[in-house]
Amino acid sequence: MARVNCPNCQSKAVVTSKETLSSHASHLYCSCTNTKECGATFRVTLGFDHYLNPPMASTAQMAAAYLKQLPREQQLDLLNIG
Ligand SMILES: [Zn+2]
After folding, report:
1. In total, how many domains does the chain have?
2. pTM for this model (two decimals)
3. pLDDT in tens, 44-70
4. 6 plus 43 within the same structural domain
5. In terms of domains, do 32 and 60 share one?
6. For residue 38, how far is its CA from the centre of ligand 1 (angstroms)?
7. 6: CA distance to ligand 1 center in Å?
8. N or C: which end of the chain has fewer CB within 10 A?
């Protein structure tokens, strides 16, 4: 699991609250646990980058969309129900 470190002293920081910007991005409000020497509070932006594996539902949707574009003969051949 991801861990947030203080940008100032590199100590472990705790996430105190989260502000959702969109389904792909949010702000994490963090507090440095090194309260004796640092005690900084800061905000981290957490953002989606890209899929390594697309979600299963979208794979099925892509396959269905692809199939619909093919001639019926090829559709049946691919589905092996011809
Ligand atoms: Zn710190």
Report:
1. 2
2. 0.65
3. 999 999 999 888 888 888 888 888 899
4. yes
5. no
6. 4
7. 5
8. N
CA of 74 to the centre of ligand 1 (A): 62
Together in a domain, 15 and 44: yes
Q: Which amino acid is at 23?
A: S
Kindly state whether residues 45 and 56 are assigned to the same domain.
no
CA 60 to chain centre: 20
State the distance from the centre of ligand 1 to the C-alpha of 19, rounded, in angstroms.
21
Helix axes 56-69, 72-79, angle to 10 degrees: 140
Round to whole Å and give the CA distance between 30 and 2: 13
